[in-house]
Design a protein that fits this description.
Number of helices: 15
Radius of gyration: 26 Å
Structural class: alpha/beta
Number of strands: 27
Shape: globular
Length: 568
């Protein structure tokens, strides 16, 4: 970091030298003899989500190319290191390396992903919200090693832990106020120090099950970064990089190395960061961008290992500060040789997984996607696959618990279903969280409040076929404190099974345990009573696919607008 007073001090020193010893030579040869900056390369990724094998469909393409797969990722990383000075290369990640993973990783509690990324040379990673899916104790096991406390070492071999360091600066143990894991790391390269601060988004408790964040509190991202930046500088570190699992979105016209119309939390967070912070490697939004925000280099490498961000730093040998920083998002193409060690790892786990993954559980008559329809200009409408899952959850609880409606959160639908046979592995990829279904009592008035809260959170709950209601685009939106004050849902329009909902009556409604605990900001659901926990959501989905095959995409007519249904 440039300190204004330093230039004045240097000028004064030169004047004294001239007075004492005469003119000081400043020939080009002498200028060139001054120590050159140290070149440091950062190779960054984010939101890998256990995608050891190349993702399929749209999730496996980017910038017009098929991309991803850890066998290819490892090769690209090795080639990028070779192109730079290998000893000057540091490989980092910005969270969500695990969680919401395909079956090949998730069946083994994501140990295969940690082993693969360790083998690929990862050095440091921030935690993301999905690192907390199974709670703090499991995250510490993932870091330190040891068999799973319930399932043991599923593949029959010891789990040795991560070969890289997870950093978690803003997740604190509530009881002690101490960080759950190391908040930062210092890496030396040719005599200069580079500091890495790792964090997840402050809002992690709102998007992770309450069991996952039990006993933890999460602090503001910018405040935390500034706090530890000061601590790093006290230790002589001037080159500071933040690995942050929070991000933004650029306009649709922007390419993977652009920064067009950047919006989202990362903009405000970066603007509030101390000037001593040089680079922010971000994630969470699964977007690709390459930005200069308030004089800081801010990057993101999309998701699923489809990109690697190649960041070039020049660090002054004397001051230790970053002189320049530039980045390039590189596509992880599949036209390179596969890393044989990664291939061996994948094959070993596929053998252990056995025939379970390939078991056919149903058939679809057409592709069923998770994409949302547009609702008054925004992607807040229904989803074919989301509606199908809600139907499956209702079918699993209508007899057992007398449920009359079910709702599914959009973030829990992780992949599309292609047309044709559906395997267990494909169904798992759609619903990988192993949430339990919860059936609870809500009054009609509480149901209206839940639906109004959709417009506060910016997330649509996918409804079962029994649900119908009308949205007024000109209605008012409630607030976080008073979501029920909104008037987006036309009163009197909500029906269950074709019958208008009575605000004073009580109805049995099914959601997953994540939503029942107020996940995704749906705090209104925590008012439910007489909760009964049912089967795993994936099991309900598989049962429904089997029973209803061939399955077609549901009609998107459960949420309508006042333009479609004029007021009486």
């Amino acid at each position: 970091m440039f300190i204004p007073g330093m230039r004045r001090a240097a000028v004064g020193l030169t004047a004294l030298a001239v007075a004492a010893f005469g003119a000081v030579a400043t020939s080009p040869e002498q200028a060139d003899a001054r120590p050159k900056p140290v070149d440091v390369t950062l190779l960054a990724l984010n939101d890998f989500h256990g995608n050891l094998e190349p993702p399929s469909g749209s999730s496996g393409t980017i910038a017009g190319q098929t991309a991803g797969g850890v066998e290819f990722l490892a090769t690209h990383l090795a080639e990028l290191r070779a192109a730079a000075k290998k000893k000057n290369t540091i490989t980092v990640a910005a969270g969500d390396l695990i969680g919401a993973s395909p079956l090949l990783s998730a069946a083994f509690h994501d140990e295969p992903t940690i082993e693969a990324l360790s083998m690929a040379g990862l050095d440091y990673a921030s935690v993301g919200n999905h690192e907390f899916d199974e709670g703090a104790a499991e995250l510490l096991r993932i870091q330190n090693g040891g068999c799973h406390p319930v399932d043991g070492c599923v593949d029959g071999t010891p789990y040795r832990g991560a070969g890289f360091q997870y950093l978690s600066a803003n997740a604190f143990k509530t009881a002690t106020g101490k960080p759950l894991m190391a908040p930062y790391a210092i890496h030396k390269v040719q005599g200069v120090k580079v500091g890495f601060i790792g964090m997840t988004l402050e809002g992690t408790p709102q998007i992770v099950s309450q069991q996952g964040v039990a006993g933890l509190s999460f602090a503001d991202e910018a405040d935390t970064a500034n706090r530890y930046a000061r601590e790093l500088r006290r230790k002589g570190v001037e080159a500071i990089v933040v690995l942050l699992h929070e991000g933004g979105t650029q306009a649709a016209t922007g390419g993977i190395n652009d920064c067009v119309g950047m919006t989202g939390p990362i903009v405000d967070i970066t603007n509030r960061m101390d000037p001593s912070i040089d680079v922010v490697v971000s994630g969470h939004t699964h977007q690709a961008y390459n930005c200069d925000i308030n004089g800081k280099l801010v990057t993101s490498a999309s998701s699923f290992g489809r990109l690697v961000t190649d960041i070039d730093l020049k660090i002054d040998r004397h001051s230790g500060d970053v002189v320049s920083a530039a980045a390039n998002n590189v596509v992880v193409t599949r036209d390179v040789a596969k890393d044989p060690r990664q291939t061996a790892l994948i094959n070993r786990y596929k053998t252990v997984l056995g025939p379970v993954a390939g078991r056919q559980v149903g058939v679809t008559s057409q592709a069923i996607t998770r994409s949302q329809e547009t609702l008054f200009g925004t992607s807040l409408g229904e989803s074919p696959l989301g509606n199908l899952i809600a139907d499956a959850q209702l079918a699993a609880t209508d007899d057992e618990q007398n449920a009359v409606a079910a709702f599914m959160n959009p973030g829990g639908v992780r992949a599309d279903l292609d047309a044709g046979p559906v395997t267990y592995e494909e169904a798992f990829t759609v619903q990988p969280f192993a949430n339990n279904l919860v059936t609870l009592d809500l009054t009609g008035a509480q149901l209206y409040c839940v639906l109004e809260q959709q417009f506060v959170t910016g997330r649509t709950l996918y409804p079962s076929a029994t649900v119908g209601y009308v949205v007024d685009p000109n209605g008012t939106t409630g607030t976080v404190a008073e979501p029920c004050a909104g008037t987006r849902v036309v009163r009197g329009s909500l029906t269950l099974g074709g019958t208008a909902v009575d605000t004073a009556a009580t109805y049995r409604v099914t959601v997953n345990n994540f939503l029942a605990g107020g996940g995704d900001g749906f705090s209104a659901l925590t008012a439910g009573t007489n909760l009964v926990t049912g089967q795993i959501d994936l099991d309900a989905f598989v049962d429904y696919l089997t029973a209803q095959s061939p399955v077609s995409a549901p009609t998107l007519d459960r949420i309508r607008t006042t333009a479609e249904v004029p007021a009486a």
